[in-house]
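Re-run with default settings, no changes from the original entry. Doing this only to confirm the output is reproducible before filing.
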Amino acid sequence: AVSIGVKQAQETLRTALAMGADRAILVVAADDVHTDIEPLAVAKILAKVVEEEQPGLVLAGKQAIDNDMNATGQMLSALLGWSQGTFASEVDIEGDSAKITREVDGGLQTISVKMPTIVTVDLRLNEPRYASLPNIMKAKKKPLDEKTAADYGVDVTPRLEVVKTEEPPARAAGIVVGSVDELVEKLKEAGAV
């Protein structure tokens, strides 16, 4: 299990260890939880981790919960030159390929990709294991390596500056009409009919 961010992400990794991961790597790339690490920097760090660890399959969430970018998995695939399957709700490994069922606007799409591959997963892929108390205790003894972005030679300086964030304008109040005829008249006045 790998997490890139702040030191507090150790708690999340310990939960992953309690759920069955053998070991974890935390890459501390920010001091403050409000510092956004952009998807390209995350993908570059993950590419270095993949080069070191040599997995045959990388599973990632389909998008981050902080900025909804939905880009890291795809960027990682491009950096490594690996195949990718996105929005996966089902994954079956068959020899040197993976059959991935994806959730798309029109329904479900099944694709076959060559291994090694990057798969970004949807919520419906599986139901996570329950982290039992004995496993939580065992997780404290499992290895959790702590590294920095500099250890991988990756600059995490943001390339994007948020200039402004504001709420949409408040919606104007509607009016109540007494009949269909009055509604049609109001729509004519507004130029909608």
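The mean pLDDT is 92. Strands lie at 2-5, 24-28, 57-61, 83-94, 97-104, 107-114, 117-121, 144-148.
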